[in-house]
Amino acid sequence: MPFYQVFCIAAHNRSYVHIKDLVRSSALHVMNNGGVVRGVKFWGTQVLPNKMRRNRVIHTHGDYWTMHFDASPDNQKNLARIMRKDPRVIRATMLKMGERIEDVAHRTEQTVKPNRRVAEYVASLIDREAKVPPSR
User: Fold this and answer.
1) How many domains is the chain partitioned into structurally?
2) pLDDT, tens digit, 9 for 90 and up, residues 40-64
3) What is the CATH number of the domain that holds 11?
4) Rounded to whole angstroms, what are the CA distances from 89 to 13, 53, 92?
5) CA 68 from centre of chain
6) Taking the CB of residue 47, how many other CB atoms lie within 10 A of it?
């Protein structure tokens, strides 16, 4: 399954019930159709770079959020169609991050940067094992 990212600007409302419901319904749509949601990140409420018009309403503020997910192309197209029709969404963009996991994360990349203390501790353990004679 391809790996996608959706970047969404939702209409700002003082209560976050609308944004929570939008994120929940988007994630449930992906999962109910055989996809996997990898993560959701809320970027906060921000002033839009320019006034945006959607559904005969002019918006000056928006709630930014992203969602990473694995889904079939049909599932992704249906999610894009649903988000276009949803009145809470000002803008939504779908990005295909990769076809396979190797396209997104290479084997040579480290997921965690080594810490000096951890590296010294591991080196000391290796030295201790080298100094201890094997038991018979």
Assistant:
1) 1
2) 999 999 999 999 988 888 999 999 9
3) 3.30.70.60
4) 12, 11, 7
5) 3
6) 9
